[in-house]
Amino acid sequence: MENNILYSEKLKKFDKQRGAFRPYGLTCELWKPSLMQKPDRHNEIEINYFTEGSLTYLFRGSKTTIPKHSLALFWGLVPHQIVSYDESAPYYVCTIPLTQFLEWKLPGFYVDRVLKGEVLIENSGAQSIYDEFLLKNWTKDLSSKNGRETVLLEMHARLIRMADKVLPKKGNEGSQIHSSEISYVERIAMYIAQNYSRPIKAADIGEEVGLHPDYANVVFKKAFGMTLNEYIVQERITQAQRKLVSTDKSITDISYECGFNSMSRFNLAFKRINNCTPREFRKTFV
Questions:
Q1: CATH number of the domain encompassing residue 211
Q2: 56 close to 82: Cβ distance less than 8 angstroms
Q3: Is the Cβ–Cβ distance between 65 and 31 less than 8 Å?
Q4: Run of H or E residues at 131
Q5: Which domain range does residue 207 map to?
Q6: Which end of the chain is more exposed for a tag (fewer CB within 10 A), N or C?
Q7: Which of 116-130, 141-155, 161-175, 213-227 has the least mean pLDDT?
Q8: Do residues 102 and 167 share a domain?
């Protein structure tokens, strides 16, 4: 395979010693598929593209397979872990800082789906040659001093094209978040991700980012379509899903580890989001 010849010495592989939330920055690289012993979390938007084979991630306690010749887009802050792959051919991984992604003012419904943890997958079809050409050039350009702006322009254009394919027509309105609010949104999301296991109040978040709690809630809801409290619960349930699937810890222990102070609240929140109990959820993966 040509990519193996050109980039074999540059192939990346997930580092199990890597710290959670450590940033990747703006990248486009060829990676070698490998099973991950723990989930990765980072605050960039991630793009995956496979020239050969396919790969399966564990997202939010459910498996998502990305087939070859498909462009996949997701938010790296959602825990993601490779649990299987069917070929050892390298694949492309691009990471885009969240602030950059939000500044592009992509269609609101598109951004909303990504920020709510959905994996968007577009089959490139006849465009696969074009995508491989783009990705190969992004990899090369980001290794040079003057290639960054070109890559950002082309990434922006490609994501607009992707949005047109995966969105209903009525969902094409622009994102409502103001550019001056983007850094606050990013910092709030990161704070919740790092502190979900302990009690968090809107006042804590406001103090952390330097905003009045009510305004922090308004800014966050514009970006995520949910209140701070709703997002905190969703983050805790996401972590509980992963623990239910990947560990044999008791449901009671998991609920408290994930920040719930009572089993009744945990069960109620879990069933509201998943339409099943934690015990039923775990059984589907046994």
A1: 1.10.10.60
A2: yes
A3: no
A4: helix 128-141
A5: 179-283
A6: C
A7: 161-175
A8: yes
